[in-house]
Amino acid sequence: MKIRNLIGLLFSVFLFSCIQSEAPNAEADILTCTVPDDILKAEPEIENESVTLIVKSDADITNLAPVFTLTPGATINPASGTAFDFTTPHTYTVTSEDKNWTKNYNVRCIVSGISTEYHFETVSLEPKYERYQVFYDISSSGDVVNWGSANSVYVLTNVANKMTDFPTSQADNGYEGKCAKLVTCSTGSLGSLVGMYIAAGNLFIGTFDSGSALTNPLKSTRFGKPFEHIPTYLSGYYKYQPGKEYTSKGQVVPGKTDQGDIYAIFYETDDNVRYLDGTNALTSPNLIYVARISDLKPTDEWTHFYIPFVPRPGKFVDKEKLKNGGYQLAVVFSSSIRGDYFEGAVGSTLYVDEVEVIHSDNE
Question: Which CATH number characterizes residue 242's domain?
Fold first, then answer.
């Protein structure tokens, strides 16, 4: 449909408002979850319809009473502060203040943060609507651990007609079996309205906060999950081809070629830093080790990478804190290295497969 003059302006304002409010259930959300500090390894992970509590291996979760804060006026059933045996997940229903919207949250406890080998063979579908794929791994303790991506906000652009049209999806032509495919995509007219012209394909260990993706996109990527080993190398395989036309905030940049990115970070958490995000993932003083590819070249052949984790000057690992979940690891892939600033080339494509974090339990 062609939009003109005042009608077009009003429609644009309406669309922008819809994007900001994100979804019909926006007034039926869990905002925070708290449990006793001595059992958690990391901040609770709150996603669209789930809350994941990563607990210490010796934590007693048989009589746990999570306390929730909700969007203003909303109510929750069972009531906040009710004790349950969380050796199995529990479902909570949040109802908006006007009673028009409800949302079910699956609240679960897991012991292990992440695995160390990633084959990208397993995906689930977006809860409820099943519009895009979510990569996940099974940890050594049998827990399902999801990877983060920006697919949940890209769906608002209405550009994708099928799952493989999203920036992050699974492909069949892996180094072994299936693989992850990351593509820099146009966000169409809706993205242009808010100055977000492209969406780089991204995949990372962590969670994506779609609620802040439009107001503060760099903070929407929350990198890391607890890791109880000392990482030494990041290994895997990739293929990459840049798109034809590099743009920066919607404007063509002549002569510039896009580049993909592969890196991993290992960092310390404290009372002020619970996770790193797009603003500080590679600059935070809490960083202990960084592994980043320096020569990701265009290639149609599967290419091996083997990157050392380089220690930051003066940093060391506290073994007791390591055991208690005081350090986090994130592995990050992107089809456009500047994609979080809406710079890159539509069509840039990064395939990754058979990735491993090689580690030691001793320094």
Answer: 2.60.120.890
In the chain, how many domains are there?
A: 2
Range(s) of the domain holding residue 30: 1-111
Same domain for 348 and 313: yes
The residue assigned the tokens 């695995």 is 115
User: Which helix H or strand E contains 6, and what residues bound it?
Assistant: helix 5-21
| Residue 17: its H or E element | helix 5-21
Count of alpha carbons within 13 Å of 173, Cβ hemisphere only?
Answer: 8
Q: Are residues 345 and 227 in contact, defined by beta-carbon separation less than 8 angstroms?
A: no
Exposure string for 11-37, b = 16+ CB within 10 A, e = fewer:
ebeebeeebeebbebebbbbeebebee
Tell me, yes or no, whether 198 and 291 share the same domain.
yes
CATH number, domain with residue 44: 2.60.40.2340
Residue 230 and residue 308: Cα distance in Å, rounded? 12
pLDDT one-digit tens code per residue, 12-68: 444 444 444 444 445 799 999 999 778 887 788 888 788 989 887 778 888 999 999
Q: What is the pLDDT of residues 328-349, one digit of tens each?
A: 999 999 999 999 999 999 999 9
SS3 content of the chain, % helix, strand, coil (to 5): 15, 40, 45
